[in-house]
Amino acid sequence: MTVSQQGFSATTRVVVFILPSHTRDLGTPRRTMRVFKCIFSGVEVFCDFDRLLVTEDDVVYVLEGKYIEIGGEDYGLATNADEDAEEGAVAEGAESTKQRVVDVVHNNRLTETCYDKKSFMAYIKGYMKNLNDKLKESDPARSAAFVAGAQAFVKKVVASFDDYQFFLPPLSDDANQEEAILVLCKWEGEVAKFFFWKDGLKGERV
Length: 206
Hints:
alpha+beta; globular; three-stranded antiparallel sheet; 30% helix
């Protein structure tokens, strides 16, 4: 017996359900950009607008940086000034003004600073104490985990101290550098990994 003999039409109907706009693309949520500020100085330290942010030892955010080239743009001015100039000469002039910088440092206006192991330990002990005191007031349950994670991370830094660079965010003239967050950086090949104290930052969505 065929389908038509059963009294049914052989034509297949396709029903399409159209979802409201607010229920579409549920698998690809829109990425929210956050600006992270130092809880002591209030200055902006970094923004996570274009890359993944991961956590290490439950105490530091890790942000990967890479080399970029800046400068060298003439916006067509050189060509307009001398239309008869050879194309190669214009390109060479623009190329000579380019600089190779690390994007995380450049985009967040970080300034490199110097520490030897002794001065770093003096700074980090004071910073960890100040941060832990603040945690005891705002989030006592977090204090023990912070101390354990911070000690583990600092131990790794000290073990390969010469591999690290140190950076400061753009501080105001009256800011206390000893209280400000210190950004650490370690290179792995051509990738620069920047470490930011998670509990020393406040993230704001923008």
